[in-house]
């Protein structure tokens, strides 16, 4: 295939022509550039100390290395060693270890990542389960500014902060009772770093089919870590399904 | 020995610098944005880019270069390692997270972390 391109636009046009089937996932192209140079630039900026203190905030000092690790532009060994050379690296190295862990589980179970690893730890109040991702979710039309914002960002950029991934997964799986596989497939199609290991097993962790309990959140939690940017001006701010205590949410969702 | 490298999407970095390398795009359902990302990664590497079926294209590439060995990077992906097996490729585990030998108890992350923590936090 061709290797010489005058511009990124030329490359994009060539890929559309050579792989027309890819357009079923839309025509968005991420600002994130592929390649070692871009990965190196991000790696230089990694600050393990700030990461440990702020990583749960959408505005936090996260590394943005995931696509480069996913596709082996950088190795896990390399990023671990680079982290160790900087102060307060324990949390960051521990998070890198999660990726290594998911990969090892994938190596052990292969396509089993698409099946429940364990029985869910709680039963929903309603047994109804949706096999497909509802159109209002996939089309960013739920009216919930947070969830619609996450989907829009994911589809446009191929990126989503880890905390947003967890909130979204929890909403889809527990509030909307969608099979986690449907949401996992949607993420895999759009994330630049999507891989069946980290992606599917993280969904299973949220769903409690690979973890001790379902992952839940509430509005207070989401508002805190997003600096309130979604809740301000959300059309459903007065009808927010997350605006409750954890006890109330648990009671509402589970038997 | 005259090796060639089959580079796959789980390891887009040189594992055998100087050896001719090939990457093959399969029809694997990737989005446009992911394909652009992957292609940009490949353009920074000295690698021939093809699309189609991996096994015949890699075999033809090896034959064209008169290679007596195909080398590829280890991945946990069963599909890609299946191709490696069919190709009779030598699989190298290039720069793992930690060198600790298994088997590991993978029931929960905490057990895994407990086992590797000391090594992971040591240069």
Quick gist of this model?
The complex is a heterodimer of chains A (255) and B (123). Chain A has 255 residues and is mostly helical.
Please characterize this protein's 3D structure.
The complex is a heterodimer of chains A (255) and B (123). Helices cover 51% and strands 0% of the residues of chain A. Chain A is mostly helical. Chain A has two domains: 8-112, Serine Threonine Protein Phosphatase 5, Tetratricopeptide repeat (Alpha Horseshoe); 135-253, DNA Cyclobutane Dipyrimidine Photolyase, subunit A, domain 3, CATH 1.10.579. In chain A, helix 5 (76-84) runs antiparallel to helix 6 (90-109), helix 6 packs across helix 11 (196-207) and helix 10 packs antiparallel against helix 11 (196-207). The radius of gyration of chain A is 19 Å and the shape is globular. The N and C termini of chain A lie far apart (56 Å). Chain B has 123 residues and is an alpha/beta fold. Chain B folds into two domains: 3-92, 3-Layer(aba) Sandwich (Rossmann fold); 97-123, no CATH class. Chain B is 37% helix and 18% strand. Chain B contains four helices and five strands. Chain B has a five-stranded parallel β-sheet, covered by helices on one side. In chain B, helix 2 (54-64) packs across helix 3. The longest helix of chain B has 12 residues, at 32-43. In chain B, 37% of the residues are buried.
How are the SSEs placed, and which strands pair?
The complex is a heterodimer of chains A (255) and B (123).
Chain A: H1 8-18, H2 36-45, H3 48-54, H4 66-70, H5 76-84, H6 90-109, H7 135-138, H8 145-157, H9 162-175, H10 180-190, H11 196-207, H12 219-225, H13 246-253
Helix pairs in contact in A: 5-6, 6-11, 9-11, 10-11
Chain B: E1 3-7, E2 21-25, H1 32-43, E3 48-51, H2 54-64, E4 69-73, H3 78-87, E5 90-92, H4 109-120
Parallel strand pairs in B: 1-2, 1-4, 2-3, 4-5
């Amino acid at each position: 295939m061709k290797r010489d391109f005058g511009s990124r636009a030329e490359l994009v046009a060539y890929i559309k022509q050579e792989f027309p089937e890819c357009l079923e996932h839309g025509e968005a192209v991420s600002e994130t550039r592929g390649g070692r140079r871009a990965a190196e630039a991000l790696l230089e900026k990694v600050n393990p100390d700030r990461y440990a203190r702020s990583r749960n905030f959408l505005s936090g000092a996260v590394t943005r290395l995931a696509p480069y690790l996913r596709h082996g532009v950088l190795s896990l060994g390399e990023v671990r060693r680079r982290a160790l050379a900087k102060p307060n690296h324990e949390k960051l190295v521990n998070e890198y270890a999660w990726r290594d862990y998911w990969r090892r589980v994938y190596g052990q179970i292969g396509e089993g990542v698409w099946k429940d690893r364990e029985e869910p730890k709680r039963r929903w109040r309603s047994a109804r389960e949706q096999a497909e991702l509802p159109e209002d979710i996939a089309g960013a039309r739920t009216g919930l500014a947070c969830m619609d914002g996450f989907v829009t960002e994911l589809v446009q950029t191929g990126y989503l902060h880890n905390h947003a991934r967890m909130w979204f997964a929890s909403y889809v799986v527990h509030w909307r009772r969608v099979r986690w596989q449907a949401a996992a497939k949607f993420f895999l199609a759009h994330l630049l770093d999507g891989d069946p290991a980290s992606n599917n097993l993280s969904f299973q962790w949220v769903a409690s089919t690979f973890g001790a309990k379902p992952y839940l959140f509430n509005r207070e939690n989401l508002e805190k870590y997003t600096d309130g940017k979604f809740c301000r001006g959300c059309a459903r701010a007065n009808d927010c399904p997350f605006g409750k205590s954890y006890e109330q949410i648990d009671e509402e969702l589970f038997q | 020995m005259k090796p060639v490298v089959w580079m796959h999407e789980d390891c887009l970095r040189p594992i055998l610098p100087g050896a001719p390398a090939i990457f093959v795009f399969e029809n694997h359902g990737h989005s446009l944005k992911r394909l652009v990302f992957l292609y940009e990664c490949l353009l920074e590497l000295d690698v021939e880019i093809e699309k189609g079926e991996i096994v015949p294209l890699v075999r033809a590439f090896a034959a064209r270069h008169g290679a007596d060995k195909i080398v590829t990077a280890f991945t946990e992906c069963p599909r890609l390692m299946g191709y490696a097996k069919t190709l009779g490729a030598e699989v190298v585990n290039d720069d793992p997270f930690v060198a600790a030998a298994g088997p590991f108890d993978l029931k929960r992350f905490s057990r895994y972390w407990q086992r590797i923590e000391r090594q992971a936090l040591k240069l």
